């Protein structure tokens, strides 16, 4: 019997080793791609303007989902800390993904479909509590980002408050290698129906949360779910608690009906961390003119995604969506919302951000508008709405 147990343990450990060191990196390389076909050249003027930017910020990156050491530079995927430093990034929103249905698509997904994040947690060698609890998955990823403050030799700051943001800005002026991050949640199903978990995640450093992701949950309907419903009673309680704590509401992936009901209820401005707009690409993933206007009227931000599905695929299409929002509601509502490392194909990784500046210049944006899009709008919004 002891021999059988030893052999069983040896097989389990071998499977863990193979999964963690072989399968996980293969999945990461295949699912977070950089692909483009447009010719690109970075001019001297664009390079100089990019290098002069004082604050560069992006509203969405799922790097915490993957089994990587973000302090090490990789030659694949979209983002790590050394590449953030190369790109002169100031602040990145690191968003936590806890569940993803097999066959995930933009049109319709069932909450009961096989969850691919369960398998991902297994192949990455994470402990069994992460296999079965969505909340534990969120807690694990939040604590992983917390730990980087110690691990990255004092060059990374987790931003949880206005004071932290002021500190990051001051440090960046004297040391360009300092970078910052703040925590978001992609889908409040990780609350597991427990209102107390909103405050628990706040204690873990979470400062932004999207009510839904690719499927309907206890809060209401997803833009890609079955019902298309608005807020449930529990959803209303969660929105109230987020307002009370100062957790920013992210409307990415939320059903149109639910967006309106959240905007009717919330006492604080909202944002969409990563999206496209129906005016340049008609997709269930993208927001309508009606919602662009309502989000802007709340004082909110619209982060334009870099991924296929939000845009047609090239940098010029990212900027076309930015121009669409600017022309409709004003430059102060436009931000970067890349969706780096979100199992997405994008035309650049983080070091390609100067090409966004080049395209903004090519499409006639002014220097003030470029600075606003590249980070000043996010800085202003967070300085007003972080605790």
TrEMBL record:
Q: Which SUPFAM superfamilies match?
A: Metallo-dependent hydrolases (SSF51556)
Please name the Gene3D superfamilies in this protein's record.
Metal-dependent hydrolases
Please indicate which superkingdom the organism of origin belongs to: Bacteria
Presence of the UniProt keyword rRNA-binding in the record? no
Identify the keywords attached in UniProt to this record, alphabetized: Membrane, Transmembrane, Transmembrane helix
Membrane-spanning parts: 7-27
Q: Which InterPro entries match?
A: Metal_Hydrolase (IPR032466), Pept_M19 (IPR008257)
What name does the UniProt record give this protein?
Answer: Microsomal dipeptidase-like Zn-dependent dipeptidase
- Please tell me the species this chain comes from: Arenibacter algicola
């Amino acid at each position: 019997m002891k021999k059988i147990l030893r052999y069983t343990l040896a097989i389990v450990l071998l499977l863990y080793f193979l999964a963690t060191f072989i399968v996980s990196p293969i999945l990461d390389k295949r699912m977070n791609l950089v692909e483009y076909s447009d010719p690109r050249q970075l001019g001297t003027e664009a390079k100089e303007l990019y290098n002069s930017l004082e604050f560069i910020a992006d509203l969405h990156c799922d790097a915490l989902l993957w089994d990587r050491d973000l302090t090490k530079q990789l030659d694949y995927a979209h983002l790590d800390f050394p590449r953030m430093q190369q790109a002169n990034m100031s602040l990145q929103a690191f968003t936590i993904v806890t569940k993803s249905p097999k066959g995930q698509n933009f049109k319709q997904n069932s909450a009961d479909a096989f969850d691919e994040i369960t398998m991902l947690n297994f192949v990455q060698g994470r402990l069994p509590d992460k296999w079965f609890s969505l909340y534990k998955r969120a807690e694990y990823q939040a604590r992983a980002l917390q730990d980087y403050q110690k691990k990255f030799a004092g060059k990374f700051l987790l931003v949880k408050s206005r004071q932290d943001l002021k500190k990051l800005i001051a440090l960046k002026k004297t040391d360009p290698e300092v970078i910052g991050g703040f925590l978001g949640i992609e889908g409040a199903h990780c609350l597991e129906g427990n209102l107390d978990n909103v405050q628990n995640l706040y204690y873990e450093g979470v400062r932004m949360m999207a009510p839904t992701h690719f499927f309907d949950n206890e809060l209401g309907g997803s833009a890609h779910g079955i019902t298309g419903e608005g807020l449930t009673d529990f959803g209303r309680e969660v929105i109230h608690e987020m307002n009370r704590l100062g957790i920013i509401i992210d409307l990415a992936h939320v059903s149109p009906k639910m967006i309106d009901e959240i905007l009717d209820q919330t006492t604080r401005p909202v944002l969409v961390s990563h999206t496209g707009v129906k005016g340049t690409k008609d997709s269930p993933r993208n927001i309508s003119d009606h919602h662009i206007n309502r989000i802007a009227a709340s004082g909110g931000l619209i982060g334009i995604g870099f991924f296929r599905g939000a845009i047609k695929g090239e940098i010029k299409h990212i900027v076309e969506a930015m121009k669409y929002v600017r022309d409709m509601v004003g430059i102060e509502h436009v931000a970067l919302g890349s969706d780096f490392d979100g199992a997405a194909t994008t035309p650049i990784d983080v070091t390609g951000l100067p090409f966004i500046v080049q395209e903004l210049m090519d499409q006639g944006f002014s220097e003030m508008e470029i600075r606003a899009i590249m980070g000043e709008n996010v800085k202003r919004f967070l300085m007003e709405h972080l605790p």
